[in-house]
# Entry
Amino acid sequence: MQRLKLFIPLFVFAALALLFWRGLSLDPNAMPSALINRPVPAFYLPTLEDAEQKVDRTLFNGQVTLFNVWATWCISCRVEHPYLNALAGQGVRIIGLNYKDDTTQARKWLEEFHNPYELSVVDADGRLGLDLGVFGAPETYVVDKRGVIRFKHVGVVNDTVWARDLLPVVQALEAEAP
# Structure
Protein backbone atom coordinates (compact mmCIF):
# COMPACT_ATOMS: atom_id res chain seq x y z
CA MET A 1 0.00 0.00 0.00
CA GLN A 2 2.89 2.33 0.81
CA ARG A 3 4.30 1.83 -2.69
CA LEU A 4 0.96 2.74 -4.29
CA LYS A 5 0.99 6.11 -2.50
CA LEU A 6 4.24 6.88 -4.25
CA PHE A 7 2.38 6.90 -7.58
CA ILE A 8 -0.31 9.40 -6.51
CA PRO A 9 1.67 12.44 -7.79
CA LEU A 10 2.12 10.64 -11.11
CA PHE A 11 -1.65 10.02 -11.39
CA VAL A 12 -2.40 13.66 -10.51
CA PHE A 13 0.14 14.83 -13.08
CA ALA A 14 -1.34 12.55 -15.75
CA ALA A 15 -4.88 13.79 -15.01
CA LEU A 16 -3.78 17.44 -15.19
CA ALA A 17 -1.83 16.82 -18.40
CA LEU A 18 -4.93 15.25 -19.95
CA LEU A 19 -7.06 18.25 -18.97
CA PHE A 20 -4.50 20.73 -20.34
CA TRP A 21 -4.16 18.75 -23.57
CA ARG A 22 -7.96 18.76 -23.99
CA GLY A 23 -8.14 22.48 -23.25
CA LEU A 24 -5.44 23.32 -25.76
CA SER A 25 -7.20 21.38 -28.50
CA LEU A 26 -10.37 23.53 -28.24
CA ASP A 27 -10.94 26.53 -30.52
CA PRO A 28 -10.65 29.66 -28.33
CA ASN A 29 -12.83 31.62 -30.78
CA ALA A 30 -15.66 29.11 -30.72
CA MET A 31 -18.60 30.71 -28.99
CA PRO A 32 -21.64 28.54 -29.43
CA SER A 33 -24.91 30.37 -29.61
CA ALA A 34 -28.17 29.11 -28.18
CA LEU A 35 -29.87 30.93 -31.07
CA ILE A 36 -28.49 28.75 -33.85
CA ASN A 37 -31.47 27.40 -35.84
CA ARG A 38 -33.82 29.80 -34.08
CA PRO A 39 -35.45 32.95 -35.47
CA VAL A 40 -33.80 36.32 -34.97
CA PRO A 41 -35.25 37.67 -31.70
CA ALA A 42 -38.23 39.97 -32.08
CA PHE A 43 -37.41 43.68 -32.24
CA TYR A 44 -38.91 46.92 -33.44
CA LEU A 45 -36.11 49.47 -33.72
CA PRO A 46 -35.22 52.54 -35.78
CA THR A 47 -32.70 52.52 -38.58
CA LEU A 48 -29.55 54.58 -38.57
CA GLU A 49 -30.47 56.06 -41.92
CA ASP A 50 -33.90 57.29 -40.76
CA ALA A 51 -34.79 57.46 -37.07
CA GLU A 52 -38.47 57.67 -37.99
CA GLN A 53 -38.32 54.37 -39.86
CA LYS A 54 -38.63 51.36 -37.59
CA VAL A 55 -37.99 47.82 -38.74
CA ASP A 56 -38.56 44.38 -37.31
CA ARG A 57 -37.22 40.93 -37.94
CA THR A 58 -39.28 40.51 -41.11
CA LEU A 59 -36.53 42.42 -42.92
CA PHE A 60 -34.62 39.11 -43.02
CA ASN A 61 -37.35 37.26 -44.90
CA GLY A 62 -36.61 36.24 -48.45
CA GLN A 63 -32.83 36.70 -48.60
CA VAL A 64 -29.78 35.18 -47.00
CA THR A 65 -28.26 37.96 -44.93
CA LEU A 66 -25.17 38.71 -42.90
CA PHE A 67 -26.29 40.47 -39.72
CA ASN A 68 -23.19 42.33 -38.56
CA VAL A 69 -22.87 43.86 -35.09
CA TRP A 70 -20.73 46.99 -35.23
CA ALA A 71 -19.98 50.25 -33.44
CA THR A 72 -17.69 53.24 -33.84
CA TRP A 73 -16.05 52.52 -30.47
CA CYS A 74 -15.00 49.09 -31.74
CA ILE A 75 -11.42 49.07 -33.06
CA SER A 76 -11.87 45.66 -34.67
CA CYS A 77 -14.90 46.97 -36.55
CA ARG A 78 -12.65 49.53 -38.21
CA VAL A 79 -10.36 46.70 -39.33
CA GLU A 80 -13.31 44.68 -40.61
CA HIS A 81 -15.15 47.50 -42.37
CA PRO A 82 -13.20 47.56 -45.69
CA TYR A 83 -13.79 43.85 -46.10
CA LEU A 84 -17.52 44.29 -45.51
CA ASN A 85 -17.50 47.00 -48.19
CA ALA A 86 -15.88 44.50 -50.57
CA LEU A 87 -18.48 41.84 -49.75
CA ALA A 88 -21.31 44.30 -50.28
CA GLY A 89 -19.72 45.23 -53.62
CA GLN A 90 -19.94 41.54 -54.57
CA GLY A 91 -23.66 41.54 -53.86
CA VAL A 92 -23.64 40.03 -50.37
CA ARG A 93 -26.58 41.38 -48.40
CA ILE A 94 -25.43 42.83 -45.08
CA ILE A 95 -27.68 44.33 -42.42
CA GLY A 96 -25.90 46.20 -39.65
CA LEU A 97 -26.71 46.26 -35.98
CA ASN A 98 -25.26 49.49 -34.63
CA TYR A 99 -24.65 48.37 -31.07
CA LYS A 100 -24.64 50.77 -28.07
CA ASP A 101 -23.29 53.58 -30.20
CA ASP A 102 -23.68 57.30 -30.74
CA THR A 103 -25.85 57.63 -33.85
CA THR A 104 -24.22 60.87 -34.97
CA GLN A 105 -20.78 59.28 -34.82
CA ALA A 106 -22.12 56.17 -36.56
CA ARG A 107 -23.50 58.22 -39.47
CA LYS A 108 -20.16 60.05 -39.80
CA TRP A 109 -18.36 56.67 -39.78
CA LEU A 110 -20.46 55.40 -42.69
CA GLU A 111 -19.97 58.63 -44.63
CA GLU A 112 -16.21 58.48 -44.12
CA PHE A 113 -15.63 54.75 -44.62
CA HIS A 114 -18.55 53.95 -46.98
CA ASN A 115 -21.63 52.02 -46.09
CA PRO A 116 -21.68 48.26 -46.71
CA TYR A 117 -25.05 47.86 -45.03
CA GLU A 118 -28.40 47.75 -46.76
CA LEU A 119 -29.50 49.40 -43.53
CA SER A 120 -28.34 49.54 -39.95
CA VAL A 121 -30.64 48.82 -37.05
CA VAL A 122 -29.98 51.11 -34.08
CA ASP A 123 -29.65 49.16 -30.84
CA ALA A 124 -28.85 52.11 -28.59
CA ASP A 125 -29.60 50.38 -25.29
CA GLY A 126 -28.20 47.01 -26.33
CA ARG A 127 -31.45 45.13 -25.77
CA LEU A 128 -31.38 43.33 -29.13
CA GLY A 129 -27.71 42.59 -28.62
CA LEU A 130 -28.56 41.07 -25.26
CA ASP A 131 -31.29 38.96 -26.85
CA LEU A 132 -28.81 37.83 -29.52
CA GLY A 133 -26.21 36.95 -26.91
CA VAL A 134 -23.69 39.46 -28.25
CA PHE A 135 -20.35 39.28 -26.43
CA GLY A 136 -19.01 42.38 -28.15
CA ALA A 137 -18.47 43.85 -31.56
CA PRO A 138 -17.83 42.75 -34.22
CA GLU A 139 -20.01 39.68 -34.46
CA THR A 140 -21.69 38.37 -37.58
CA TYR A 141 -24.71 36.15 -37.89
CA VAL A 142 -25.76 34.35 -41.05
CA VAL A 143 -29.53 34.52 -41.28
CA ASP A 144 -31.44 32.35 -43.76
CA LYS A 145 -34.34 33.34 -46.03
CA ARG A 146 -36.87 32.60 -43.27
CA GLY A 147 -35.15 34.82 -40.70
CA VAL A 148 -33.51 31.94 -38.84
CA ILE A 149 -29.98 32.33 -37.48
CA ARG A 150 -27.86 29.58 -38.99
CA PHE A 151 -24.31 30.57 -38.04
CA LYS A 152 -22.50 32.95 -35.72
CA HIS A 153 -18.99 34.30 -36.05
CA VAL A 154 -17.31 36.25 -33.24
CA GLY A 155 -14.56 38.58 -34.38
CA VAL A 156 -13.41 40.24 -37.58
CA VAL A 157 -14.66 38.96 -40.93
CA ASN A 158 -11.76 38.72 -43.37
CA ASP A 159 -10.77 36.60 -46.38
CA THR A 160 -9.98 33.56 -44.27
CA VAL A 161 -13.16 33.70 -42.21
CA TRP A 162 -15.28 34.37 -45.27
CA ALA A 163 -13.81 31.50 -47.32
CA ARG A 164 -13.59 28.99 -44.48
CA ASP A 165 -16.68 29.71 -42.37
CA LEU A 166 -19.24 32.08 -43.84
CA LEU A 167 -19.25 31.47 -47.60
CA PRO A 168 -20.04 27.72 -47.36
CA VAL A 169 -22.98 28.48 -45.08
CA VAL A 170 -24.21 31.31 -47.31
CA GLN A 171 -23.94 29.15 -50.44
CA ALA A 172 -25.79 26.27 -48.80
CA LEU A 173 -28.56 28.58 -47.66
CA GLU A 174 -28.78 30.27 -51.05
CA ALA A 175 -29.34 26.84 -52.60
CA GLU A 176 -32.28 26.12 -50.29
CA ALA A 177 -35.79 26.76 -51.51
CA PRO A 178 -37.34 29.98 -50.22
About this structure: The first helix runs from residue 2 to 5. The chain has six helices and eight strands.
